[in-house]
Amino acid sequence: MKKFLTRVLIIIIITLVADRAFSxxxxxxxxxxxxxxxxxxxxVMYRMNDPVVFMGSSRCHHHYVPVIIxxxxxxxxxxxxxxxxHNIYFNYGLLCNILEKYTxxxxxxxxHPIDYLATPFSQTETVSSLDPFINFSAxxxxxxxxxxxxxxxxxxxxxxxxxxxxxxxAGNLSARSFAADKGFKPLYGNFDTSFGPVVPERFPxxxxxxxxRYLQKFIDKCKEKHIQLIFLFSPMYAVxxxxxxxxxxxxxxxxxxxxxxxYNLKGITGHPEYYHDFGHLNENGAKKYSAIVxxxxxxxxxx
Amino acid sequence: MVVxxxxxxxxxxxxxxxxxxxxxxxxxxxxxxxxxxxxxxYGFAEWKMIPLLLTATVVFYGLGIAIGNNSExxxxxxxxxxxxxxxxxxxxxxxxxxxxxFIQSFSDFFNAIGLQTHWSLFxxxxxxxxxxxxxxxxxxxxxxxxxxxxxxxxxxxxxTYIAFFPTILSxxxxxxxxxxxxxxxxxxxxxxxASVGLKRIFWGMFMKMCVADRLSIYGDAVFGNAIHxxxxxxxxxxxxxxxxxxxxxxxxxxxxxxxxxxxxxxITENFKRPFFSQNIAEYWRKWHISLTGWLTDYVFMPLxxxxxxxxxxxxxxAIIITFILIGMWHGAAWTFALFGLYHGLLYVxxxxxxxxxxxxKVKKTKSGLPPFNVVLKMIWTFLLVSFGLILFRSAxxxxxxxxMKKIATEWGGLFVDYKTLINGLLCMVIMFCKDFWxxxxxxxxxxSTGIINRYRFELxxxxxxxLILFFGVLDGNQFIYFKF
Lengths: 303, 484
What we know:
The complex is a heterodimer.
Chain A: H1 2-32, H2 36-47, E1 52-55, H3 58-63, H4 66-73, E2 77-79, H5 88-101, E3 106-110, H6 138-146, H7 150-155, H8 165-173, H9 209-224, E4 228-233, H10 246-254, E5 258-261, E6 275-277, E7 280-281, H11 283-300
Parallel strand pairs in A: 1-2, 1-3, 3-4, 4-5
Antiparallel strand pairs in A: 6-7
Chain B: H1 6-22, H2 27-46, H3 50-70, H4 75-112, H5 130-145, H6 155-163, H7 165-168, H8 176-183, H9 191-223, H10 231-262, H11 280-286, H12 289-306, H13 312-329, H14 334-353, H15 372-393, H16 397-409, H17 418-440, H18 450-454, H19 456-471
Helix pairs in contact in B: 1-2, 2-6, 3-4, 3-5, 3-6, 4-5, 9-10, 9-17, 9-19, 10-15, 10-16, 12-13, 13-14, 14-15
């Protein structure tokens, strides 16, 4: 038994040493990768210092052109939205990490039903993108614990970069640079509507009180740091009358937050030439929408 | 509680510590402890089915003794008890697994010929692991009847054999003789056996978490929306599916065997690198060995004897029936029956040509590699297996037909999910290389001298863990075979 336990102990020691050693190498590659998600997270966490920050999921990532909005607002703007169904859990953790580095003046949060409805997709698993940033802020650690990955990440430094091999490889082999885009990533090509009428995306899910609680925490954090918070909803291709916005409307009213809802925006909604797919604007659509939304934001954001 | 979970680790540590530190070498106490642990494990998965498991165990324990008591004096009675056992075992399976399927099929049939029927389906909760423990129960009464084993007169030992926690949910299907013999002796920690067990657990975890769960992300994305994917993507997913299945099921078997080894109990091997098979018969000798072995002994052999008057065609008939049963064992659906029939039919040319009866040895060139013609045969066998698994993977015959039609006719760009594919394929290559090494160079070691050689075992296990941490899906799917 003693011999066997010694063997187990040696395995544990080798594993811990290898885990730490490999994680140093992987972390280095993580910091230098140009792959969109990882590059962006690094930029948001270490390089971003703009007074106006846009946050949200892929619809934020692809819809708000910081250069256009910044020119109108005469201030620095950064798009911190991330591709994929990153919901309020992720954005709360990200906000807490950003606040550890600096305090933006204004945050524009692109709302999505995944931020307040109990969707079968996009739950706490979305915070795993923040695994490499464990111990960055109490808020980030809180959501990592909520997702059940905190202790795994504490135990293994390598696990923080789990499944990242492909991205790190591709991102370190290519010489792309997104620095000039300030976080915005355009989508190309027009939405193909030739296959028939497009039905509006529906979200027949009940309210998720835990997500709403985190949305309120997000708001409270901004209040605490005297950050102006604005809710946004960018246009969809196909729309219908619905009560989809009752929850964000009431939260915005309760907290005295401006909610600019462009779910159905004349001149963009229903125009396939401005869309990449039913939920995402293409580059032209994003530019047009950014110009529209920038002039509106000008009323609320004062330098 | 899956074997590759933190819950299981805690559970197993408690079992292990008490097993060796408090009860070391005391057979009776260790068996009682194993039985309690096994029922706790099963109850954790499905506590409502514990009475069923216990009742079935009591009944078959009694039947075993009754058969044993009558085997010398009253053979007719012994046969009757054996028949009763087989019928009871099959009855359990039929009721819990197949009753609704047969009702639905009869209803569909009568409706198809114009006779309107209104049959109601039953709401039956299928006990987890039923396909595995009923086969153990049936195997036990047959073995007692054949006088290959003495009836077990220790209820704890028998119940431990049936409910042994590493194998109850997903096999391997252990035979009573070697298993019960191991329970009769007290177990002290066997350093070599436990070390191998540890290594196999982590290798199994690598197979499951890095290969199976990674590839399943791609497979689920494509097969889950088969109607929206073209033939190229479906074809590619079809080729990945046998590898996913192998990594999933063989991965579980490795872990179960490893856990058994740590407890000093040798469990039946279930896989022997099936993708290095040169024909379908060899493939089935290496795939889910405990199931195919069971069906060979208790179905194919008796059928083959019954049909001996038909000579070669009798054997063919027997093998087709056996394979339909293998297919149906996996689930109550016509897709599984057809999957079995497909494999049975693949045996026909082998049986007619006599290749079925030949055991293929591992053929190597001077450099220790397989010859080119052997590689071609392996690829062909793999393609046949992959094609058959379309039936296995599909929810209905219509869906299987649609997938096959798309593969044959709808060409286009491949759906690529780089992150999943690069990680999954890389781990798949690692798995393949290890299997290749074990198959062709079993006695060769990469580092035979120096400090690396001294700590080769520890480095290997640590290497598996590091790979799992970096590539593994730590919150992945259930094991595919849990649902069978």
